[in-house]
Each structure stands twice: as structure tokens, then as C-alpha cells.
Amino acid sequence: MATSPVKDFLVTYIMPEKCYERIFVSFYINVPCLTFIMNRAVGLWILLDTFLAQLLQLLKILWRRSADGLSLTSVLLQLYAFSCPVVYAMANNFPLFAWGERLFALAQTAAIVFLILHYRGETLKGMLFLLAYGCLMFLLGSYAAAAAVSVMQTSSLATLIASKVLQAGTNYCNGHTGQLSTLSVLLSWAASLGVIFVTLQETGSSFATLSHTVSACLSGVLLAQVLCYRSSTTTSRKKNE
């Protein structure tokens, strides 16, 4: 007997078949199934953030042909934070499918750095940066000491938090958010909340939970700035045009 497309999708991506039978056939909801479904949904959302958050920011810069309002230092810190798990995976010879989405986000962030420099009239510097960065990543992934790689991996979250602080400070000083993408910030904020949930489920570490909570709060600040400064951002863009 043919199954419905809805069941096929849910059983394939969201829940095991026994949970589907309990919830949609027997109309019985139990805690293990709910926990499993929430973990799977959060995981998919985090994956969506990895693939789309930086891409949306990149597309907005290209569409507006401007990187006004974006902090170069903040994006460089993001680049470092995204580089750490990639270097760690390369150094430990993890299969590409286990960290390919990280590499995708990394490439997008490097492109954003280049575009910021390009729209500042420093295209050559941007090209040289990409070349130097590519060489550095290869060297780190191939020859870096295990201790250095471990330190990088440990410091990635703190660096990401610092990047959000810098961007929030830049927004406050400018009085607008410039070309900061609303959808990108929204995705990052929602993914940060998801990471808190996963951390509580998997590790229960108070320090890790606190760190991710700080990161989520800062993402919330950036989202609030994007919404509150919307009129100022529009005015600034019209002046630049």
C-alpha cells in the first residue's frame, strides 16, 4: 500500500516510524518522541543557518553593491571562528561530508571580507588577503600541532561572541545597521537558541550553556538593532545613493 508524501517526509527527516505511529495513528504523545523530534528539528535549523546565514549576507552586499555598516574586524573574527572547526577537521582527517557545510560557510565569509575591502576601494588588498588566507588554512590543516588546533577549536565560540559585540557596537556608533542582513541575523539568532537546547540535552555543561546563551543574547541584540534602526538604515542608504 502506498504511503502518503507527508509520512515519507516526516519519517525520513523528522522522526522514526514508531513515533509517527504513536503521534499520528494512536494519537499518543510521549516525552522521548517529543525530545527526538525537537532535537532533529533543531539540528535541521542549525544546518540551515550554516548554509544560508552568510549566503544571505553575501547576496545583500552584492545586491546593494555596498558593505556600508559592516565591521571588517567583526567579519574577520567570524572568519576565524568558522575556520577553527575546519582546521580541526582537516588536521584529524575527518571525511569531507562531516564538515563540508562548515567549509561552505567559511568560503562565504571569506568572500564577504573580500567584498568589504573591494567596496572600500581596496580590491588588490582583498585579493592578496584571500590568497594568504587560503595558504594559511592549508598549512594549518596539514602541519599545525595538535595542541594549537585544540586551542583554536576551544577559542572559536569566544571569538564569535567578540565578533557580535563589535558589530553591535558598530551599529550603535553609526546609528544604523547598514547592509547587515535581517534574514541572516534572524537565522543566526534562532540557530543560537537551538544550540542552547542541544547543549542542554547532550552535555549539560553550565559553562558551555552560559557561553551559548551569551551568544544567543548578542544575536538577539543584533536582531533588535536591525529592527529598531530600520528607518535610519533606509535614510543612510538613500544618502549614499
TrEMBL record:
Annotated source species: Perca fluviatilis (European perch)
One GO cellular component term noted in the UniProt record for this chain: membrane
Name of protein: Solute carrier family 66 member 3
Chief location category: membrane
Gene3D superfamilies, sorted: 1.20.1280.290
Transport listed as a keyword: yes
GO biological process, one term: oligosaccharide biosynthetic process
TM region(s), chain numbering: 20-38, 70-91, 103-121, 128-149, 206-229
Alphabetized InterPro entries for the sequence: MannP-dilichol_defect-1, PQ-loop_rpt
Subcellular location: Membrane
